[in-house]
Amino acid sequence: MAEIGAGLINPSAGNHPVTSDAREIAASVAAGERSWREVPYYEARYGGRGRMFGHSDSAWLSLISEAPQAQVNAEVMWLGSVLSSRGMPQILMEWHLGWLHQELCAAIPENRERYARLLAAAETLRALRESQISPAFASRLADEFYQRVGQEWSRRFPEMGALLVSAAADERLGIGRAVEALEEFAIDPRRFPPAWIEAVRHTLRQARGGVVSAPA
Predict the structure, then answer these.
(1) What is the Cα–Cα distance from 117 to 119, expressed in whole angstroms?
(2) Is residue 38 part of a domain?
(3) Does residue 212 carry a pLDDT above 80?
(4) pLDDT tens by residue, 41-73
(5) How far apart are CA 29 and CA 33, in angstroms?
């Protein structure tokens, strides 16, 4: 597949290669916009600059979908690790790959088999996360977090409980600063009230100290 530099989509992204297919670029932008709508944390944390990286990163993921599955997995895990260390737990990559897959398949259905590699990579991330913290335990911690912060703050950041637990799982997978990079935002007293901050700290303590591995 022909390539272009990411800077043509996002001037801040440099010149690493991304897809040159106009249909894939449009699907990549659509997926980035969907992530932006579904996850309020992105805008609150990263602003418009982060939004543009969602477009260019998606165009890169579209490009690498033509590689063998093992390479796609490795590339996705690399990017997921980098982003987690900057405050984006890998569960966000899982979600985004699902939305990107949908947009790409809708745009170019004849490439569905190739785009399925992105879903398989998302499944690899999910399996790794659940090997560290079981789905049942993760769900319980997230529910308890929302109960602690109340309805108003749960509506503002409906994804935060899952992000906190995912960050703890990423830390156990060896990703440096996975927890700290999220926590530095989530306990900022300029943004959040004391009850929220205590709920964040409580959830992270539970996730870090009471991790339950998924059944074999």
Answers:
(1) 5
(2) yes
(3) no
(4) 999 999 988 899 999 999 999 999 999 999 999
(5) 6
Q: Give the C-alpha separation, 51 to 29, whole Å.
A: 10
- Rounded to 5 degrees, φ, ψ at 215 are -60, 150
User: What amino acid occupies position 140?
Assistant: R
| Domain range for 93 | 3-132
Tokens, residue 123:
């499944």
Q: What are phi and psi of 193, to 5 degrees?
A: -75, 165
Q: What is the mean pLDDT of residues 170-192?
A: 98
Verify that 97 and 151 share a domain, yes or no: no
Please give the Cα distance from 21 to 24 (Å, whole number).
5
Contact 92, 83 (CB under 8 A): yes
Residues linked to residue 3 through DSSP beta bridges, in sequence order? 19
Query: What CA–CA distances, in Å, run from 201 to 41, 69, 129, 168?
Result: 18, 38, 20, 12
Instruction: Identify whether 215 is part of a domain.
Output: no
pLDDT score for 2: 74
| Last residue in a domain, options 100, 132, 164 | 132
- CA 135 – CA 157 distance, rounded (Å): 20
pLDDT, position 164: 98
Distance in angstroms (rounded) separating the CA atoms of residues 150 and 209: 24
Total structural domains within the chain: 2
Same domain, yes or no, for 142 and 114? no
Say what the pLDDT of residue 216 is. Answer: 38
Whole-number average pLDDT of the chain: 94
Segment holding 3, helix H or strand E:
strand 3-5
